[in-house]
Design brief:
Shape: elongated
CATH topology of the largest domain: Rossmann fold
Strand content: 15-25%
Bound molecules: adenosine-5'-diphosphate, magnesium ion
Structural class: alpha/beta
Distance between the termini: 24 Å
Number of strands: 17
Largest sheet: 6 strands, parallel
CATH architecture of the largest domain: 3-Layer(aba) Sandwich
Length: 400
């Protein structure tokens, strides 16, 4: 475990805490549509403010592609943070400029300085050393509390702690790692469910779960890809063509552990409320029809598999749950997860959309832990490591 806030020097009064937070929030019409990630940062910010430290916040938002783009500005997050925390929040742009440096030096104790989107700069994703050095000047010590980006080696996650000492993990990161750590040696049987749409990112990690998991439930577009790999005609379903070989090799390695849907909900046009919707066996998907949820027989099978399990990790919705017509598979799995949690099982949901789906099902309080970052959770569970975490323990040095 990396150093945490408690390992920092006791006297932080007046010190600028450069904090990497994960404010990658959904925006709608320029407003924060869901403040869950802002709320998740509050314990660390309160901890720092109580000790007189002056927090300077770095975050990315969306994928603006390395240049300024007003639709991805972090400015709307400032008032939301101010409201939740009850302190004034200053804002500076760009995050690496002289004005940001001046604002950090002039930051009045008890206030917070929020900086503009780090991904407005090409050096962020490139982990540019010069950018990391410019950012490192904004603080007297570094705290990484952006759990959701610990799997990325970017300037603000792995570059800055190489330049700024001491550095430590924040309270959110600590809490997430504790919950995921419990799955390193999970109570058996251990079930894992994979779904969603980010197949290329995830399928590689899936293999690493095969050794540890007793049972792997597959849904969403991930299931379409596996069905296609097995030779099923998946019609117009979303399939990751580039992952078919990998899916085939995973199937040949662990066929016995993997559950694929036996039936699916299909539709002719996903976005059209008037389009035809049917439940069909997987071998009866007609051309032009797309599988957008697991069917009723699959839901019953998955729930039954889960009921015998003592621990469960779930990433990726079973279907296009944003449309109520295609949410039944995801909700059924959420109910089964809540059921086994109530009976004493340890259950973790990882992934922004997965968490949103469980919240929509009204069951967010019914599982043991909800991760704020799916990619990071998968990476950590799969490999036991995270670049952002390794960077925090790279060099030990005292505060200047
Ligand atoms: P998470 O955010 O939990 O990691 P992903 O981002 O990988 O999950 O995937 C979530 C998205 O996958 C949702 O927007 C959902 O609508 C979509 N999805 C799930 N099943 C399907 C499917 N069968 N076809 C197309 N999209 C799907
Ligand atoms: Mg997602």
């Amino acid at each position: 475990m990396a150093r945490t806030l408690r390992d920092l020097p006791a006297d932080l009064a007046g010190r600028r805490a450069l904090v990497r937070v994960d404010y990658n929030v959904p925006l709608e019409a320029g407003e924060v549509a869901d403040a869950t990630r802002v709320e998740a940062s509050l314990p660390t910010l309160r901890w720092l403010l109580r000790r007189g430290a002056r927090p300077v916040l770095l975050s990315h938002l969306g994928r603006p592609g390395g240049r300024p783009h007003p639709a991805f500005s972090l400015a709307p997050v400032g008032p939301v943070l101010a409201g939740l925390l009850g302190v004034d929040v200053d804002f500076a742009a760009p995050c690496d400029g002289e004005s940001a440096l001046r604002a950090s030096r002039e930051l009045v104790a008890g206030r917070i300085l929020l900086l503009e989107n780090t991904r407005f700069l090409p050096g962020e994703a490139a982990n540019d050393r010069a950018l990391a050095e410019r950012l490192a000047r904004l603080g007297d010590f570094f705290v990484n509390d952006a759990f959701g980006t610990l799997h990325r080696a970017h300037a603000s996650t792995t570059g800055v702690p190489g330049q700024l000492h001491p550095s430590a993990a924040g309270l959110l990161v600590e809490r997430e790692l504790k919950a995921l750590g419990a799955l390193a040696d999970p109570p058996r049987p251990f079930a894992v469910a994979f779904g969603g749409a980010k197949i290329g990112d995830k399928i590689d990690l899936m293999r690493r779960f095969l050794e540890r998991a007793d049972c792997l439930l597959v849904g969403g577009a991930m299931a379409n890809t596996f069905l296609r790999a097995r030779g099923v005609d998946t019609g117009a379903s979303l399939v990751e063509e580039t992952a078919l070989d990998l899916a085939r090799s995973i199937l040949s390695e662990a066929e016995g552990k993997i559950r694929l849907p036996v039936d699916v909900t299909v539709t002719s046009r996903a976005g059209d409320p008037g389009a035809k919707v049917e439940e069909v066996p997987v071998d009866a998907i007609e051309p032009g029809m797309a599988a957008v949820d697991i069917g009723p027989a699959s839901r019953a099978r998955y729930a039954k598999s889960l009921r015998s399990c003592a621990s469960f990790f779930w990433n990726g919705p079973m279907g296009l749950f944003e449309d109520p017509r295609f949410a039944a598979g995801t909700f059924a799995l959420a109910e089964a997860a809540a059921e086994i949690t109530a009976a004493g099982a340890f259950t973790v949901i990882g992934g922004g959309d997965s968490a949103a789906a469980v919240r929509r099902a009204g069951l967010i309080g019914g599982v043991s832990h909800v991760c704020t970052g799916g990619g990071a959770a998968l990476e950590y569970l799969g490999s036991g490591r995270l670049p952002g975490l390794d960077a925090l323990s790279n060099r030990e040095r005292n505060m200047p």
